[in-house]
Amino acid sequence: MSGLFATFNIGKRGLFGQQRAIDVTSHNIANANTEGYSRQRAVLETTRPFGMPSMDNQVGPGQVGTGVGVSTIQRVRDSFMDFQVRREKSTLAQYEARDKYLSEIESIFNEPSDNGLSTLIGKFFNSWDQLSKQAESSNARTVVAQQSAALADELNHTYNQLMEIKENTHDSIKQSVFDLNGMLDRLDKLNQQIMSVKVSGMEPNDLMDKRDLLLDQLSEKFNIEVKKDKFYSVNVGPEDESGLNPNVNSLLIRKNPNDAVRRFSYVSGIAKTTTPGSRANTLQYKVTYLKNGDKDKTETITVEMTEDEYKQLDQCRVIWAQNDKNDDDANGRALDKNGAAIAKETTIDFENLAMFSLPKDENRGELKGYMSVQKDVDKYIDQLNKLAKGLVFSVNAVHSGKEDSSADTMPFFVNKDAAQYTDGVLNNLGDTLNKEVEITAGNISVNMEIIKDVMKIKAGTTGNPDVDGENDGKRALAIAQLRGTLLKIQDIDNSTDRVGFIGTLAVDSSLGVATVKSDINGMKIDNYFKDTIDKLGIQEQEARRVVRNQEVLLQGFQERRDSISGVSLDEEMANLVQFQHAYQANAKIISTVDELLDVVVNGLKR
User: In this protein, which residues make up the domain named Flagellar basal-body/hook protein C-terminal (predicted)?
Assistant: First the structure.
């Protein structure tokens, strides 16, 4: 085809091509501030030309072009920059979660301050030192009782606040699991829509932008691996070891079949029973979980665990779940490590439970941050319990002169959960002494008998005022000197009792009072607590430092990605002027051809 009509068609194609380019430019400008939007460009290509053979089949001067067409509307995106941004988002989210809760723990300990535990420990020992100088004074005894009660109350308060931090992190994990499953469902729908559009021959640019934005948000939860598949689809799963056996499908999003994927459920409760498990040192625990994190859908299984395994599940709280949209009862059900669904009311060994554990240092993300904070809180609670136990065992032993708690007749500190009083008198001494081994920072208390009658405090050499005399304060001084005694507090565990901690009391020759011997491998009570605070300070400083560094690093990566994918209004305006002039020029060609056709058609009549 040649002639004026061919030129007319070339102008028309040019007009349509520039119009489409203007449309794309307009779309870019409209979405200049849209989060996750990637700029687009119309790729213009010459349309298929045709030859001009002569009537005698000789070759003509060559092919004549037929104009321009838009081959595709291309999305400008750099996959490698996406990978870098998502990787750094995971790290930032992890340390933001740690920084948030570690700063709260710092506020709970409130150190150094005039009202912190270290100050109260100092005041506690100072009050005993003052009593040793004024053994006859009821005021000095009252100060000892009240300072001891203040120390016990602060230990109780700190313990309860730390337990509340654990509850808060549980809530954060639960919300993350719920949000996570919602993101995965939306990603799956977008993945299927993108494939449908691509199969139809069109470019699903805006849909892919939405999917990439969701992938960015998903990467904040944990580090993900995104693999591209046919028709612009993606397969998504955890990047590192995740709790399922290596050969088991751990994909969360996949091209086909899209229902053969996994989800997550949240463990809402772990109740200990007295039934032993099949393995040594295990007990059965009733584990209740929210299917897919939904609080209205719960299920219970029995898991056989050791004490350490219980801690692992308590700190993690996330388990792999079945994804079955066709069966609401099975959807969200817990999986074993081989990927098989665990039926309700079933007993399973912890070693076979598919827990979404993130133990490796390579693991990152918000969930890893929350899980690591729970582990830290457990350590601080454990150290606080050791401090409380060490204080109780040593003070009670010197106060009574007995390393065996069962021989004590007037314990200074007691387990308030076990102690029972009638008219201010302890009426279950034997049971209270037996429960001394279960004392924690949460239940330590001063014996109410001593609070009611401070004259029952044993300050003299024998502990009997009639024998010691009113000015004998040697036992009180021996308790005050515990402040400088090296004790193996770090070795205390749940089964440690008074005699196991102290060994045999030794008589101090200068005082004539049985007291606790220093252990060269031990540490002072106040120094042990200060070490705990120092570790907390270092952890919080590290979290805050990493957050600041990651924010700068992530900002740099995002700016580089935006320089490629982001919309530059200056560039778009320049393009708009260019396409406008080209549009006008093509319109001029059509106008010129129209005049020429008028000459040919109407001029031939004359």
Answer: 563-601
